[in-house]
């Protein structure tokens, strides 16, 4: 990891010109830049109000810099001069998955071959984070906008701002500061602040269903007019007509068996009980094997009936943080369209 001068990054981004802006969120702004040797970069300039101190940020960066996998966005360098907190990543020319998948004019760029490659790549990247890296990382904010695509549409997991690192014998943590994106959050995290690698598996399941159907999971679990994606897929799955939900842009001779397997795996990953969700290494075996028998399914978490039941109980629901004893100050969430990502000190 390089320590980069602020002057170099100002030149690279034409002094953080608006024309170089790639995106923005709760963390700050991301700009496209070009280093003197010609390398294209993405420059994430954290907002001045970020609660994380320089020392804490350095500690986290040292850890993240140790992660190396083809399906993780590579951290190139950092700049901590003049009260700036700037992270520099490799540039992804096809930007984030959501900008193509949920755009009716662009989603035909993602044929089934590309989509299956994206699903496989995300699964391999997650297995590395959870099981194969020395650090054992839980991402905690996995979603379509945090999956970046390179020139060949290969996926790379990005944004470790919420990532937490587990010790070898610790299976789950409890936090009073829930941060992430509704629609991707596992129920035990949204309701009780419990997170583990199985929370990421839940988010992966949502992503798989979004990729196959081309529909964004609304995360609107309490509105009459919005049916959440899990309820919709489960309803069609139990009726035997789930292929009706396949993205219409994939209608040209789709490999039905492979699509059904992906939907099955997606539903398996969003089971209500974390223990019922597979490890990512098992997901990768299921994706790559044509002979492995997939486990049977139960109704997934956050189906409409389950939510209506929880609304009539004392349990905490996605829209009632006060029921868990959490206050507005300890819950940082967003709807899918407006991502909030915070760098949190460990």
TrEMBL record:
Cross-referenced InterPro entries: Kinase-like_dom_sf, Prot_kinase_dom, Protein_kinase_ATP_BS, Ser-Thr/Tyr_kinase_cat_dom, Ser/Thr_kinase_AS
GO cellular component: membrane
This protein's record includes keyword Glycoprotein: yes
Membrane topology field: Single-pass membrane protein
GO MF assignments: ATP binding; protein serine/threonine kinase activity
CDD domains in the cross-refs: STKc_IRAK
Taxonomy, superkingdom: Eukaryota
Keywords recorded for this protein, A-Z: ATP-binding, Glycoprotein, Kinase, Membrane, Nucleotide-binding, Repeat, Serine/threonine-protein kinase, Signal, Transferase, Transmembrane, Transmembrane helix
Family from the record: Belongs to the protein kinase superfamily.
UniProt entry tagged with the keyword Membrane: yes
Organism: Arundo donax (Giant reed)
Pfam families on file: PK_Tyr_Ser-Thr (PF07714)
Localization per record: Membrane
Protein known as: Protein kinase domain-containing protein
Residue numbers binding ATP: 44
Spans through the membrane: none
Gene Ontology terms describing biological process: response to stress
Domain called Protein kinase: residue spans: 16-267
């Amino acid at each position: 990891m390089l320590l980069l001068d602020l002057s170099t990054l100002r030149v690279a981004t034409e002094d953080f010109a608006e024309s170089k802006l790639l995106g923005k969120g709760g963390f700050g702004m991301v700009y496209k830049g070009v280093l003197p040797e010609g390398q294209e970069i993405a420059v994430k300039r954290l907002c001045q109000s970020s609660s994380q101190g320089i020392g804490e940020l350095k500690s986290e960066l040292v850890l993240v810099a140790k992660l190396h996998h083809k399906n993780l966005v590579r951290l190139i360098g950092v700049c901590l001069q003049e009260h700036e907190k700037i992270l520099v990543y490799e540039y992804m020319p096809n930007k984030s998955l959501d900008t193509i998948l949920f755009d009716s004019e662009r989603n035909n760029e993602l044929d089934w071959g590309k989509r299956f490659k994206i699903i496989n790549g995300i699964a391999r990247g997650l297995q590395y984070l959870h099981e194969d890296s020395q650090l054992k990382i839980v991402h905690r904010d996995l979603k379509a906008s945090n999956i970046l695509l390179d020139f060949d549409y290969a996926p790379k997991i990005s944004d470790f701002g919420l990532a937490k690192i587990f010790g070898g014998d610790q299976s789950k943590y409890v936090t009073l500061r829930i941060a992430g994106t509704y629609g991707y959050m596992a129920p035990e995290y949204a309701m009780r602040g419990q997170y583990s690698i199985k929370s990421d598996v839940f988010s992966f399941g949502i992503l798989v269903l979004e990729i196959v159907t081309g529909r964004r999971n609304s995360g609107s679990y309490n509105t009459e007019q919005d049916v959440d994606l899990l309820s919709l897929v489960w309803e069609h799955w139990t009726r035997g007509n789930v292929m009706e939900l396949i993205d219409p842009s994939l209608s040209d001779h789709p490999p039905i068996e492979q699509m059904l397997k992906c939907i099955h795996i997606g539903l398996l990953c969003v089971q209500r009980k974390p223990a019922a969700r597979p490890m990512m290494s098992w997901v990768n075996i299921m994706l790559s094997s044509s002979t492995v028998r997939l486990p049977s399914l139960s109704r997934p978490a956050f189906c409409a009936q389950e939510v209506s039941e929880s609304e009539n109980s004392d349990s905490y629901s996605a829209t009632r943080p006060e029921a868990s004893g959490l206050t507005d100050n300890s819950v940082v969430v967003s709807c899918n369209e407006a991502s909030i990502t915070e760098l949190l000190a460990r």
